[in-house]
């Protein structure tokens, strides 16, 4: 198939294109309206269609005679466990858990938070919610109780599903105690907490709202999937924005199922019943789309990996998993490859494994540097495909579409737009710029199916953040350019969001924590270059005039505060105490200037700067403390 023709067809007549793709799914009612407007005058797909995601991921395959096919391969080097679940097993596990949730009074439209490590029960919980129309919100385990509490107050779950504990390389993560702490902090109080006990040696205090996952499932009746409108929210997934408050991205059901099914075939080029492995976490969008829903809708075997690319036990883990489970297509973040490369620069460990099963290696989550791309290409010997997308899109926006036609790669570019995405580069005035001119990456409306529907409880933020900046376009928040050959290059965020080890974090949120330290008068948090994690946060703090604490004490306390409030995943370890911050004459902190200095990028001194001499002071502080690229 020819990429250009296929892509052009999707842009020229989106309704015909996506109607055809939607017919690849089994609907209770096939939609008669393909594209229409919702009550906010925003595009929606398949509004009168009816279907159920849990049915498509499980029951459909059982009905088609594939009940004995493996659906989930759970591989946990941290607990030394390997276990497989067939589609029949899934039907029983998910059906009974859904029955238990129903018995607890959960109904279509209720919300539930899932805060679990990478265990099969996290997937069962998501699919059980989907089965009965409960909107789930999975929260990544690396977030601290305070962050969990913010999400509890925003989506007001009737219940929380959690596990007693998880393992992070060399330490136990007390999931259940974190949930208790979050409930203490939140205003909204969920009715129950369903706890999957793991017996990893952690102390798990009992609370009156606790229910035991295993006994609930053992005694529950099976619940069948219910027919849901295509526009029914399947989930809310919180992601960092440019304020201290995360945004709850709402995903629909029918558009998402259509897009995922399409992407498995045409982007990832994976056949039904092959093994697909996305080495991410269910707490991120990659986990939602390509550990859970995408592979299962497509009747693949999906790998749930509870470990890290290194240290569990070493840098050969990925290669062992690929070869042991015959993975056909794999997806990870460039950071994971950099971590492996650091431990095994010559790729010697790769030679111990037969990777002949692997067809494609996909990379995403952050910018893929050329050195990382070349290293994988050299050592794995299969096409390495950098692709670009975000929580909001839910599935790739730029990619070499492996199931259509592999086009030649230009390092640094995730190649061309995926079907349905009319990607343009705009200037400040919202006009499309010439080839190779950098600007804002935007997508002409309508977006294809599967992308965000809105922000939970905050339609104004949705409109103002994504639609208002450029009329007729969705604004991605990324900068980039398109070269003369049409290759799209993403150069990075144009806002205060940073990307640390493939994790999207808000510097505004970290600033709130730093500013709350009693000795801090004012502060700025920026992302600076890091060889392993791509970016790491750096806090610059100016102390109050009456501060009596030593610098080292303030630094230590700030690191601890950010870890306690946001979570270990924030990775804030660098705190610089400075005399003053660069500001405009009206007192606005010049964060962009700070970022450019740290990353040794060219910059022009803003005419509004209060005192240009500060640039040399900051340069000196960064050089002395080896911050960023110096
Ligand atoms: N629960 C609790 N804590 C967690 C966690 C979880 N699920 N995930 C991460 N953390 C903690 C880590 O233990 C670490 O704590 P520490 O500062 O005490 O060491 C901290 O959060 C930062 O974690 P991470 O960014 O993962 O760094 P790391 O040093 O532990 O590992 C890599 C480095 C490169 C191996 C790791 O970041 C990695 O595998 N990256 C791939 C990223 C990825 O898959 N992203 C998904 C998007 S596609
Ligand atoms: P998230 O919403 O957590 O998936 O993060 C999305 C952001 O990560 C995007 O807006 C980009 O800034 C960045 N990103 C993801 N994939 C890529 C990629 N392949 N190349 C460059 N940046 C990427």
Question: What structural keywords apply?
Answer:
alpha/beta, globular, 630 residues, binds adenosine monophosphate, binds coenzyme A, Rossmann fold, 30 strands
Protein described:
With 630 residues, the chain is of the alpha/beta class. The chain folds into 2 domains: 374 residues, 3-Layer(aba) Sandwich (Rossmann fold), CATH 3.40.50; 124 residues, GMP Synthetase, Chain A, domain 3 (2-Layer Sandwich). It contains 18 helices and 30 strands. The protein has a 7-stranded mixed β-sheet, with helices on both faces. Strands 7-6-8-11-12 form a 5-stranded parallel β-sheet, sandwiched between helices. Strands 21-22-24-25 form a 4-stranded antiparallel β-sheet. Helix 9 packs across helix 10. The longest helix is centred in the N-terminal third of the chain and has 17 residues. The chain is globular and about 75 Å long. It starts with a helix and ends in a 6-residue tail after the last helix. The mean pLDDT is 96. Adenosine monophosphate binds next to strand 24 and strand 25.
Summarize the topology.
Elements (H helix, E strand, L loop, with lengths): L2 H10 L1 H9 L12 E3 L5 E3 L4 E2 L1 H14 L3 E7 L4 E6 H17 L7 E5 L4 H12 L3 E4 L6 H11 L3 E5 L2 E3 L2 E3 L1 H11 L6 E5 L13 E3 H7 L8 E2 L5 E5 L7 E5 L2 H13 L8 E4 L6 H13 L3 E5 L11 H8 L2 E6 L1 H10 L16 E4 L6 H11 L3 E3 L35 E5 L12 E6 L9 E2 L3 H9 L5 E10 L5 E6 L3 E4 L2 E4 H9 L4 E11 L3 E10 L7 H15 L8 E4 L13 H8 L15 H11 L6
Parallel strand pairs: 4-17, 6-7, 6-8, 8-11, 11-12, 16-17, 16-18, 18-19, 19-20, 29-30
Antiparallel strand pairs: 1-2, 3-13, 4-5, 9-10, 14-15, 15-23, 21-22, 22-24, 24-25, 26-27, 28-29
Helix pairs in contact: 1-2, 3-4, 3-5, 3-10, 4-5, 4-8, 6-7, 9-10, 12-13
Pfam families: ACAS_N (PF16177), AMP-binding (PF00501), AMP-binding_C (PF13193)
GO molecular function: propionate-CoA ligase activity
Protein name: Acyl-CoA synthetase
